[in-house]
Design a protein that fits this description.
Distance between the termini: 89 Å
Largest sheet: none
Oligomer: single chain
Mean pLDDT: 77
Number of domains: 2
Low-confidence stretches: 1-5, 60-71
Number of strands: 0
Number of helices: 5
Structural class: mainly alpha
């Protein structure tokens, strides 16, 4: 194997080896799966653990490029259509939320004006007890 002449294949991996593999994965030279195979690394999450450990050394830009390189595959026409559909639905929901927020403000303003003009409380007070009169009428 290619990795055997540089690194041992035991459970112990040197810091140098870990850094080399993380750099190769973060730079996009290898995917995690390819690195696992090339360097005979046991465990599917070991490289991810190393990346999390060393990511501060490489900065966010390289981590972002790693994510893109690791997960990049061109979208099919069906995926593009589905993405556009979801995007349109998202825009519609944002518009509906904006309308509902404006409507809520308008209704609350109407209640405020009505309470001020009519000098009565229209809003229900939370955690209030029923009056004694209504208690007597129930019995």
């Amino acid at each position: 194997m290619e990795g055997q002449n540089i690194f041992n294949t035991q459970e112990f991996y040197s810091e140098e080896m870990k850094l080399k593999i993380v750099q190769e994965v973060l730079s996009g030279q290898l995917t995690k799966a390819e690195a696992n195979k090339r360097y005979e690394i046991k465990g599917h999450s070991r490289i991810l653990t190393w990346i999390r450990k060393y990511e501060k050394r490489f900065g966010k830009d390289e981590k972002s490029s790693y994510i893109v390189a690791e997960n990049f595959s061109p979208m099919t026409e069906i995926e593009k259509a589905e993405f556009e559909s979801i995007k349109r639905e998202n825009d519609k929901l944002k518009q509906e939320l904006s309308y509902a927020s404006m409507r809520l403000i308008a209704l609350e303003t109407m209640i405020d004006v009505a309470e001020k003009e009519l000098k009565i409380n229209l809003r229900k007070k939370c955690f209030t007890r029923q009056s004694k009169k209504s208690d007597k009428g129930i019995k």
